[in-house]
Amino acid sequence: MALTRAELARYVDHTLLSPTASIEDVKALLDEASDLRTYSICVSPSMLPLPWPTGAVKVATVCGFPSGKHTAEVKAFEAAQSVASGADEVDMVIDIGRLKAGDAAHTEAEIRAVREATPGAVLKVIIESAALTDDEIVAACRAAEAAGADFVKTSTGYHPAGGASAHAVALMAGTVGGRLGVKASGGIRTHEAALAMIAAGATRLGLSGTRAVLDGAGVADGDY
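Structure tokens predicted for Deoxyribose-phosphate aldolase (224 residues):
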């Protein structure tokens, strides 16, 4: 599929979630996002509130990251605090173990707890698709939709099973049927990989090497 550099940039949550990231690193991330015209930046909740205006760039953060092994109450509190500190969007990690044990009701309940704690914010649900069977991916997506989430998201990028795949994105997109967005993240490092995820049904991309991905379009910086 063909997208201009500017069109592709608008899919991107420009992401920095390294444990060693400093506030200076976040400022550099925001400056780069503004230059590249990405949709948002995604940073750790400890970096909020940001001490500078973000202009047209939205602010996303994470919740229960990266393990998902936090109680629903802790996830809800963390997400609410982030939104109060300026986050426009929250990417929460579900308890993958509970889902794999067949407890999709728990998955739905924890998503709903975060949803109720963050009215007005965009809620994305990270399901670690590489660690799930197809049936489990479908169950996670159905739980997210039932609980009122806005997106389902493939991966944290930290799970040893891997990140996004076109197969998982297509399955997630088919399950939510356009009623929720689909964010592909984890291991998307080339222009071709980004376009493959969008072709499979992704409506948002989580990228840390955004400039390199956009440069793959063969368009010079500033030529939008």
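Strands lie at 12-16, 40-43, 58-63, 89-93, 122-126, 151-153, 181-185, 204-207.
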